[in-house]
């Protein structure tokens, strides 16, 4: 091969990997579009298709339109350039390549450096042609080359961030020790910035648990009344099961249980999407990235995982790792924690954390939470549900923790879907005979009967059904009044237990009196 042939066939400077990363970042983030446009122009791309796609993205952004894969492909089609840009399949392929804003900007600098080397290469070839034709002397050539180099070459050429990094232990130690202390999101069960899974038995109330987490994070209050929020901030919640009215009702109930007024609850930095995102869909990941970059949450919750996984096989460790890894990197790019809500398997095999459905989520998570139902009951009169739960926590940086909680939920009017809901969660002794460590004489009593007994015991004289109802209506416990029929049924149950007597006298209505001077008990 001659020298001339070698010059002609030598590679032209370019980096297609960096070009793809730049376009992927622009598709993912509107923030990246502006930053990248300050670094490069369309003429800096080596592949013509990339130049067309870059122009289409910047045009969409200038018009205030999103540059998601579908909109971008339609814009290219409208301009008659979709085929030259590689077709919709290539646009989607670029969108599937995850790239953070910071990485895309760094890679834009690589694209710019390659473009400058190409310009220098063209100029040098032109100068050599002039020398061969005798139109340029050696001294003139040297001066021209120095000018070309000073105009084109940057002092340092940025490098692609490698997939594998190698650092000496001393460098790692210096880097880690220079950072601020690592905070807990909820001490001591979730480290800020970590990711994991909460799997629960059917009817354990996963949604109540994640809404409690979201409100606690947003308000800087204790999750479940136990775990302090030490790195509070906005919470981004994807709720695939339930309407906005249902979830707002629950969020207000959780906030009220933490001492927040409705106005305070409604002003919390909780951002909700009432649809489970498809984690395998590039456009959904793109929208999630935009959301986390805009709202900068401290906690991201996805409920439930089976809807978000979009039919992926939970037993396939490798496939689930790739699926969950994509959303993990998006959430961690803003320093947020990720909590996935999951369910127990239906086989009945395993216990605790081993009951999580599929091997993928459990193997992926940095922390695991399992929630088991120990027992539950619903009051037939008030429809108050009382569930005793075993919460179990484990992780690579947290102590294994188990705690037993009693969750109570009721609506002031069970027949009115707009009436206020009430929620409470309470730590109880594992060995307690009843959910709320109820005295033996009250075991098995309905919640309504205990409330009525409290009123009767607190009364200084025999009291009528109406009088009991009036006192319940005036109570500050937030549980609301009871119907006369419910009070009468409760009194009959108390009479059967010999906890209250009907002291009716001739010519009077029913008047009730406690059979012992016991102090009023705490009503659930």
TrEMBL record:
Domain of life: Bacteria
Positions of region (Disordered): 505-524
Keywords from the named record: DNA replication, DNA-binding
Stored Pfam families: AAA_25, DnaB
UniProt domain DNA helicase DnaB-like N-terminal: residue ranges: 13-112
InterPro entries: DNA_heli_DnaB-like_N_sf, DNA_helicase_DnaB-like_N, DNA_helicase_N/primase_C, P-loop_NTPase
Polar residues composition bias: residue spans: 513-524
Keyword check for DNA-binding: yes
Name of the molecule in the record: DnaB-like helicase N-terminal domain-containing protein
Organism: Streptomyces iconiensis
């Amino acid at each position: 091969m001659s020298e001339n042939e070698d010059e002609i066939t030598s590679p032209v400077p370019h980096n297609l990997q960096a070009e793809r990363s730049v376009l992927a970042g622009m598709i993912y983030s509107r923030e990246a579009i502006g930053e990248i446009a300050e670094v490069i122009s369309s003429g800096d791309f080596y592949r013509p298709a990339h130049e067309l796609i870059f122009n289409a993205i910047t045009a969409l952004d200038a018009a205030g339109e999103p540059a998601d894969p579908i909109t971008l492909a339609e814009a290219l089609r409208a301009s008659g350039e979709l085929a030259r840009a590689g077709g919709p399949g290539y646009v989607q392929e670029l969108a599937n390549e995850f790239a953070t804003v910071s990485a895309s900007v760094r890679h834009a600098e690589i694209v710019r450096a390659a473009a400058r080397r190409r310009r220098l290469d063209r100029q040098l070839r032109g100068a050599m042609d002039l020398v061969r034709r005798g139109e340029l002397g050696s001294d003139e050539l040297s001066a021209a080359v120095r000018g070309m180099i000073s105009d084109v070459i940057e002092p340092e050429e940025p490098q692609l961030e490698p997939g594998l990094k190698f650092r000496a232990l001393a460098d790692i130690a210096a880097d880690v020790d220079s950072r601020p202390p690592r905070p807990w999101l909820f001490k001591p069960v979730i480290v800020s910035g970590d990711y994991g899974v909460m799997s629960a038995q059917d009817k354990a109330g996963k949604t109540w648990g994640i809404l409690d987490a979201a409100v606690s994070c947003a308000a800087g209050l204790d999750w479940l009344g136990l775990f302090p929020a030490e790195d509070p901030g906005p919470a981004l919640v994807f709720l695939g099961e339930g309407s906005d009215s249902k979830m707002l009702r629950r969020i207000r109930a959780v906030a009220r249980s933490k001492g927040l007024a409705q106005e305070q609850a409604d002003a919390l930095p909780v951002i909700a999407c009432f649809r489970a995102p498809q984690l395998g869909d590039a456009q959904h990941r793109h929208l999630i990235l935009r959301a986390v970059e805009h709202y900068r949450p401290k906690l991201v919750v996805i409920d439930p995982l089976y809807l978000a996984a979009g039919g992926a096989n939970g037993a396939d460790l490798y496939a689930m790792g790739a699926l969950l890894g994509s959303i993990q990197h998006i959430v961690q790019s803003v320093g947020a924690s990720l909590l996935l809500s999951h369910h127990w398997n239906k086989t009945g095999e395993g216990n605790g954390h081993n009951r999580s459905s599929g091997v993928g989520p459990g193997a992926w998570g940095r922390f695991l939470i399992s929630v088991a139902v120990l027992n539950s009951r619903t009051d037939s009169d008030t429809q108050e549900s009382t569930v005793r739960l075993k919460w179990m926590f484990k992780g690579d940086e947290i102590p294994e923790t188990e705690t037993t909680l009693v969750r109570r939920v009721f609506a002031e009017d069970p027949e009115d879907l707009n009436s206020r809901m009430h929620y409470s969660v309470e730590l109880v002794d594992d060995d307690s005979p009843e959910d709320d460590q109820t005295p033996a004489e009250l075991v098995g009593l309905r919640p309504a009967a205990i409330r009525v007994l409290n009123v009767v015991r607190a009364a200084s004289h025999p009291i009528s059904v109406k009088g009991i109802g009036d006192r319940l209506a005036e109570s500050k416990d937030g549980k609301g009044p009871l119907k006369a029929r419910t009070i009468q049924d409760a009194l009959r149950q108390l009479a059967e237990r010999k906890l209250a007597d009907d002291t009716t006298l001739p010519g009077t209505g029913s008047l009730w009196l406690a059979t012992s001077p016991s102090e009023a008990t705490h009503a659930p």
